[in-house]
Amino acid sequence: MAYILRFRKLCFLEPVKYSSCDKAKADEKKSVETPKVENEDQGAVSAVLEENTKRKKQKKQPKEWRCIDSCCWILGYMCTTWWLLLFLFHFLPGNLPGLKVPEPPGARLKREGLTALHPVVLVPGIVTGGLELWEGKPCYEDLFRRRLWGGSFTEIFKRPMCWLEHLSLDNETGLDPPGIRVRAVPGLVAADYFAPGYFVWAILIENLARIGYEGKNMYMAAYDWRLSFQNTEIRDQTLSRLKSKIELMYVTNGNKKVVVVPHSMGVIYFLHFLKWVESPPPMGGGGGPGWCGKHIKAIMNIGPAFLGVPKTISNILSAESKDVAFIRAMAPGLLDSDFLGLQTLEHVMRVSRTWDSIVSLIPKGGETIWGNLDWSPEEGHVCDSAKKTQHQQHLDNNRKNENNSKGGTSFRVQELTKYGRMISFGKAASDLPSSQLPVFGSEEFVRGNSSSNSNSSCGDVWTEYNEMTQESIKKIAENKAYTVRTLLDLLRFIAPKMMKRAEAHFSHGIADDLDDPKYNHYKYWSNPLETKLPDAPDMEIYCLYGVGIPTERSYVYKLSASGRCKTIPLQIDSSADGSDNGCLKGGVYFADGDESVPVLSAGFMCAKGWKGKTRFNPSGIATYIREYMHKPPISLLEGRGLESGAHVDIMGNVALIEDILRVAAGASGAELGSDRIYSDIRKMSEKINIRL
């Protein structure tokens, strides 16, 4: 029995780890003591139990927790959660509350009798369309016709520098660099999904198919979104192919007019097409007056960026948006140049500044539309819902006390957010009275060549900031506030090559006389304030966009801290926070919109600029505003939301899809219910003093 117990002890008891001191004591003890084995079974059992008790009392040394352990635990939790949700989705009964997937709007409308009638043309916006390689450098010679943009994005991790080189355009011409040809992916697959599982047009395409649409009456007008709009015609004849396709669909579908559905930047791209197609060659398409009225039933603009997007400014200045600024605040150094010498933002800036299309999204209309140092159409907007009632009470009290002010009664007038100051260097510059702000002079915009900003120790990442002196940067930054008008001068100063190249293709003003022959040039065709709509009185124009989401409107900036590798001297001041109306968060002032495009840009033209017969809409084309109040998903089964108003997620909004399907099936704007407005777009439009 004693031998069996010894064998159990050998097999089941853990070996004891000794320190050097403990080991010496143990050896000494072992040499002195002599093993005693009793012949009685009970004595042997007692010895083993006593030894086990001693071993259990010994405390194990805690293991050192490493970073890899945390990563493994996080991945484990994510995988476990994913598989649990997948299990619940497939095995739980579908009739449980909250688990039943709603019926697609296409299936419901088909049951009501809706069928495909008018051909549909889809026009994607910036960055959502796929790009594929047709010719490349040796580092990409094995990727012929493989996607470089859109899809899995695996090449970013395999060969990042080669990937960036192939996505860049020539810095002088805005066209292909020597030895590189990257082209738009053709067909519906060009923009159905941006990445695996991340839909863009896929849900809308599927619902159109449910009422009878297919390849013969539905077309994706894919184009290279990096190019200026006219260059898509010069290099790829994209506008000519779109004209031919619309004419073909018109003829082969019983002379039914086409319903065009552009999204985001695709809205102003198609606005450019409307003018191009009727203009005479060689600059235009030669369709002649009346082409649009003959071939187009309606233009249903989703998330329209008619008057530009403020976040374009922050992208050009520092390759940032609110999300990038938030990451830099939460994880300092992660995206900055000093982190492993990666120079992430420098690379983003270098590549994006070769894309002329970005300049098309700079806010248009100057101070008349976007406001000046003291005024903006959105003044009085309150972002924090909890403060809206208090804010309204303040306004009411101020109105009551206006007459008493002459009698010496004092009261506090709540400061309104000065959205017109698109860029303010320092929070104080965003709040100060305009009389206390520095006056701009020509000396602020004098560039100086600098060799002190060389970044050779960090890699060859050139940006136009490398050509500026620290003194010239400080002059433009210290306590300055910029409106849209002065911002154009600032952008020409910090990005002269980009602006010189792109401003040959785009304009951002307001036309004094639209009959002036100069407005026949293509640089004005994508600006709704510098071009006329076609003579097509039976056509309809819709502005379809989400509301109820804080959207970037203006920014508080600061000079970046000097660093060994830093060549971007400006950044959003994420420490700037707090305001009376709750609109300033992390260096960004927010207004109402769809998270990317403010309501002002998306809705003004339909609310006022094109409403009725105006000089911008001489034939009186009917315009309709259809707003979609944002509602986040109530469960994971709704994905990105069935009632989302976000800029891209709205493409899965059930109400939006239903509106598009009804118009494609023959309904008019009046039959949809005309305007549906939740925002203050009408009040904003009334405040804008523009000659119509």
**C-alpha Rg (nearest Å):** 32 Å
Give the fraction of residues assigned to helices: 25-40%
Structural class: alpha/beta
**End-to-end span in angstroms?**
108 Å
Strand order in the largest sheet? 7-1-8-9-12-17
**Outline type:** globular
The share of residues in extended strands comes to: 5-15%
Low-confidence stretches: 1-26, 28-39, 401-413, 451-457
Tell me the total number of β-strands: 17
What do the pLDDT scores average to? 83
Count of helical segments?
Answer: 25
Indicate the multimeric state.
Answer: single chain
Can you summarize the main beta sheet? 6 strands, parallel
Q: Overview of this structure, please?
A:
With 692 residues, the chain is of the alpha/beta class. It has 25 helices and 17 strands. A six-stranded parallel sheet has the order 7-1-8-9-12-17, with helices on both faces. Strands 10, 11, 13, 14, 15 and 16 form a six-stranded mixed sheet that branches. Strands 3-2-4 form a three-stranded antiparallel sheet. Helix 1 (2-12) packs parallel to helix 3 (41-57) and helix 22 (599-609) crosses helix 25. The protein is globular. The termini are far apart. The model is unreliable at 1-26, 28-39, 401-413 and 451-457 (pLDDT under 50). Residues 29-53, 381-410 are annotated as: Disordered. It is a single-pass membrane protein. The chain crosses the membrane at residues 67-92.
Topology (elements, then pairings):
Blueprint: H1 2-12, H2 20-32, H3 41-57, H4 67-91, H5 105-111, E1 120-123, E2 131-135, E3 147-149, H6 154-158, H7 160-167, E4 181-184, E5 193-195, E6 198-199, H8 202-210, E7 218-220, H9 229-236, H10 238-252, E8 258-262, H11 265-278, H12 291-295, E9 296-302, H13 311-318, H14 322-330, H15 344-352, H16 366-370, H17 385-401, E10 423-425, H18 427-431, H19 470-477, E11 481-482, H20 484-494, H21 496-502, E12 540-547, E13 549-559, E14 570-572, E15 584-585, E16 588-593, H22 599-609, E17 622-629, H23 654-664, H24 669-672, H25 681-687
Parallel strand pairs: 1-7, 1-8, 8-9, 9-12, 10-13, 12-17
Antiparallel strand pairs: 2-3, 2-4, 5-6, 10-11, 13-14, 13-16, 15-16
Helix pairs in contact: 1-3, 5-8, 20-21, 22-25
